[in-house]
Amino acid sequence: KEREEKEKLGHNEVVEGEGEKPDDVVEKHGEDEDIEEDHPSVDEPIDEFDDNVPFVPFSDEDNKIFDASREARQKYEEIKTKMDDIDRQITDAESFSNLDFGADFAWAPLKGKCVELESGEYVYKLCPFDKCNQKEKNGYSETNMGTWKSWEKPHSSMKYGDGTTCWNGPPRSTVVDVHCGDEDALVEASEPGRCEYHFIFRTPAACTDPDAEEVVHSEL
Question: Which spans does this entry mark as compositional bias, Basic and acidic residues (predicted)?
């Protein structure tokens, strides 16, 4: 019985197909092609920016918000800059207070100053209580010859260390002998040992105070 029903169904399908004309089949295929043309292939590029989309300007309320945000950012940057300056001043003040400028602070004016000396092919720089540098006369980059460490001898010899490391050698270091002079001047620079430098620095700060000498003599 099932076999008979399947044969009947198959017969009906054949009969339905026989009723179609060739022109009808072509017309149906044409409709399918029209449908495909209306829908572009996925592989075709899609323009993400349509020129026909109208431009919508910002409202007055939006512009006010943007202006307020810009002003707030500007004020923030100004306050941040001032705070950074204050932090630097505090750091400098703390560092300044920890330095030994002598009983009468005679050496304090040297902090922040630098003196230079041209010798041979190099220019040497001394910044008391800060660093020692060296560079070629026609060069721009400086070599660190040491940063301030301490008085090697109280108020007569300065020690600078942990400078730029020499090739296959130790970090550069400098000893600065200080002598009395009419003005601040770096008068001599030498390298007695590998990566070890020696400066002679003259300054009024190293001169004995005549008033102090009179007090000492009167006490004697």
Answer: 1-31
Residue-level pLDDT at 48: 58
What CATH number did the domain enclosing 144 receive? 2.70.130.10
Q: What is the pLDDT of residues 117-152, one digit of tens each?
A: 999 899 999 999 999 999 998 888 899 999 999 998
Would you say residue 204 has pLDDT above 90?
yes
| CA–CA gap between residue 108 and residue 204 (Å, rounded) | 12
- Which structural domain, as residue segments, surrounds residue 45? 1-98
pTM for the predicted model, two decimal places: 0.56
What does the CA dihedral 168, 140, 190, 156 come to, rounded to 10 degrees? -110
Structure tokens at 187: 């008068």
In terms of Cβ atoms closer than 10 Å to its own Cβ (0-12, 13-18, 19+), residue 146 is: buried
The answer to whether 205 touches 110, Cβ cutoff 8 Å, is yes
Whether residue 215 is contained in a domain is answered as no
Residues 6+ apart with CB under 8 A from 191: 197, 198
Phi/psi at 87 (5° precision): -60, -40
Sheet architecture: strand order including 115-119: 115-119, 122-127, 131-136, 143-153, 157-161, 173-180, 196-203, 185-193
